[in-house]
Each structure stands twice: as C-alpha cells, then as structure tokens.
C-alpha cells in the first residue's frame, strides 16, 4: 500500500521514539506525517532540483491521504508531477501516481500511469504485475497473461511469477510450457515443494511416469503426512503398473504369433 512506502524512520526521528507503529493512534500518525511533510518541504527548498526530496514529500502526502487527510492524494499527485518534470525519463513518478489512483479506485488513470511508466522503462516489472492484476479484475484473461509474460521477461528470476505462470500453463494443458517454468523455479530454489509437485504432474501428463514418481518422492521427504500427495503417488504407481502389465502381455502375444 502507499502508506507502507512512507519512511517510518523519519517518523521516529520526529518524535515517535521507540514506540512501535502499532501502538500509535491514527491521529498520532497523522501528526507525525504532517511534521514529516514540513521537514521534506524544507529539504526540498534547500535543494529544489533533488527529485528524491520531491518524491519523498509526495509519498508522505500520499500516506496522509491513505489516512483520510483532506487533499492528501491530490497534493501527492502534484508532487509526483513535479518530479516527472524534473526527471522526465524516470518511470518512478508515474508508477507512484498509479498507486495513488489505485487507492482512489480510479482504474483508468491507474492503467494510464502504469503504461506511462513502462513506456519509460520497458522492464518495469512492478507495473506489469499490477496491470496483469487489473486485467484479471476486468476479466480480460488474455491481456493478464500478456502482462504476466512481460513481467517475467523483465524479471526472469522472479520465482513467484514463474510459479504463477507455470500453474496457469498447467491449467491450459500446456505441460511442456509449465515444465519450463517449474524447472526455472527449482533452478533458483530447489526446495519449492509446490513447483516440484506440479513438475511431477506435468511429467505424468507427458507420459513420463517414472520421472514423475521420482519427483513426488522427493516432495514426500518433507511432506510425509500429506494425504493428497500419498494418493497422487499411489495413482501414478497404479497407472505405471498397469502399463507394465500391458507391455508384458503384448510381448507374450507377439512371441505366440511368431510361433
């Protein structure tokens, strides 16, 4: 959320002391954020060309907006626009504007700002992820998949995105494609049990039953009590056994025909 972006170290320096944020009332936080805005504006006046100060002010104002402060969001948008003018090739102000619009539930402006951010930086993963989520909410599954592909192209080592696409590909019976994603996940972290489980199911669907069983037994080492896993192993073992029996019958029939 926008509020989580606010620099709470600044809040403590302004008077929160050692208190945890959970112990502060909403009014306390509003007061501290108000002081933080004043401090950020003072810093900005000393170095007006420093975009970081402008963005910091915008983030704090957005935090006030998230707490219900009047004109908080609108003032934040003004600051992000100022930041864009100072550094027109930086995608961050557009991305931050999108978050404000999303908080205001203005989906069209959210999409516009996110698309602005990726026009400035084609591998802006965070923007693609939000665009994919919006497409899903709008029931445009094809567009969501397109944005998911773009997010992975921009961050191919993102385990969560690769896993998500692998599951989606599996649901579409694209088992080879799913295998690519699950192998990528396991290459980055071989302890992701769910990725190995779905890899095993993909192998099974592709007819590689013994390999599937090998992968499932690895998963079982750390999931001894998982009943669903046990049933899956039993099902594939039974299927593999039937295939072996059928192959033996075919061989025997072939020998008899030759005689």
Task: Please characterize this protein's 3D structure.
The protein is mostly helical. Helix content is 77%, strand content 0%. α2 packs antiparallel against α3, α3 packs antiparallel against α4 and α12 packs antiparallel against α13. 34% of the residues are buried. The N terminus is likely disordered.
In summary, what is this structure?
With about 260 residues, the protein is an all-alpha fold. Helices cover about 75% and strands about 0% of the residues.
Key words describing this protein structure:
mainly alpha, 259 residues, 13 helices, single chain, elongated
Which descriptor suits the 3D outline?
elongated
Mean pLDDT: 84
Count of beta strands: 0
**Into which percent range does the helicity of residues fall?**
over 70%
Largest sheet: none
How many angstroms separate the termini?
77 Å
Q: Label the structural class.
A: mainly alpha
What is the overall number of helices?
Answer: 13
User: Helix and strand succession?
Assistant: HHHHHHHHHHHHH
Share of β-strand residues: under 5%
Return Rg in Å: 27 Å
Poorly predicted regions are 1-21, 245-256
């Amino acid at each position: 959320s926008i509020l989580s972006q606010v620099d709470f170290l600044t809040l403590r320096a302004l008077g929160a002391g050692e208190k945890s944020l959970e112990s502060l009332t909403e009014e306390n936080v509003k007061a501290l954020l108000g002081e933080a805005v004043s401090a950020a504006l003072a810093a900005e006046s000393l170095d007006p060309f420093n975009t970081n100060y402008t963005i910091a002010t915008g983030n704090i104002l957005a935090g006030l907006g998230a707490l219900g402060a009047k004109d908080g969001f609108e003032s934040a948008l003004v600051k992000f626009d100022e930041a864009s003018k100072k550094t027109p090739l930086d995608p961050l102000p557009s991305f931050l504007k999108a978050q404000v619009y999303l908080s205001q539930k203005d989906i069209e402006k959210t999409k516009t700002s996110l698309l602005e951010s990726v026009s400035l930086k084609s591998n802006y993963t965070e923007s693609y992820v939000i665009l994919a989520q919006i497409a899903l909410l709008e029931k445009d599954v094809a567009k969501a998949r397109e944005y998911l592909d773009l997010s992975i192209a921009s961050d191919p080592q993102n385990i969560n995105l690769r896993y998500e696409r692998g599951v989606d590909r599996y649901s579409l019976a694209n088992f080879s494609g799913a295998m690519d994603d699950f192998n990528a996940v396991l290459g980055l972290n071989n302890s992701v049990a769910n990725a190995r489980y779905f890899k095993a199911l993909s192998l099974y669907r592709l007819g590689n039953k013994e390999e599937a069983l090998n992968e499932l037994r690895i998963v079982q080492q750390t999931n001894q009590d998982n009943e669903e896993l046990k049933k899956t192993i039993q099902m594939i073992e039974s299927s593999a056994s039937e295939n072996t029996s059928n192959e033996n019958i075919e061989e025997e029939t072939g020998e008899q025909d030759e005689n």
